[in-house]
User: Fold this.
Amino acid sequence: MTHDARSALLSTALHLAASGVPVLPLRAGKGPFGNCPTCTGNACGGRPNMKTPGPCQCPRPCHAWAAATTDPHVITSDAWNRAWSRAARVAYHPGGAGVTVVDLDNPAAVTWARTTLPATRTVPTTRGEHWLYRGTMPSANGVRPGVDIKSTMAYARWLGPGTGPTATLPDAVRALAVKEPSPRRRTPQALTVPLRGGQGECRHRTPAYLDRGIAMAEQRITDAREAIHATVYRTFLAVLSAHGRCGCLTNAHVARLFTAAQARGESPRHCTDAWTNALTRLGL
Assistant:
């Protein structure tokens, strides 16, 4: 990155921070920078799916929304300057700024919003628009085709101030993140296929390693925007590939995966079929 490009990003970040918008550097490809040594594994409490997380206190751009800050001393620190030299964009924490972003990822989603949601401040994106509302709520991905909600415990790219007045967060947006229970899936079905395997040497040094892997698998299923069937199968396959040949993987772990899959609309039969197919694929 050129000196002028880095200076432009830093100037934007400082301007936003002075306005009360928590910022962080974003790599090319929209991804945040990885954990710093102090916060490896989000040890400081910034993991998005924790129940009581808080902003990271480490003065480095260590991970996503929890690293966002309005402190100019942190933003201009040596550690952050190294990140700015490799950054592609400025990102911000909408919830920390007191706003909610409805991320409309394609023209069809924009058309839906214009006929469904109250007008508000809009920001053009590469493929669609960001609609900004005043107020915060839990973030949620894939609330409908091409629509994500970014507010608390999430980050969004800064693409400019946008146009139009910022409306108050309406109930219509809050309702998008509320999943109505289905009678068919109200009680997730327990594992009904044998685990098999369990004869190989265990390569896992601590139970935390396995638990972290299961948690990541649950999150992958929960965050899937489309192709849920394929995502569930690939996730089951990945879990079994990593943990299926030793004695660590239990029915309780698999039940967690089944629960995550059924919460995204998979039937118990689809879960069982996907699990069985993954076992067969790996020869377990």
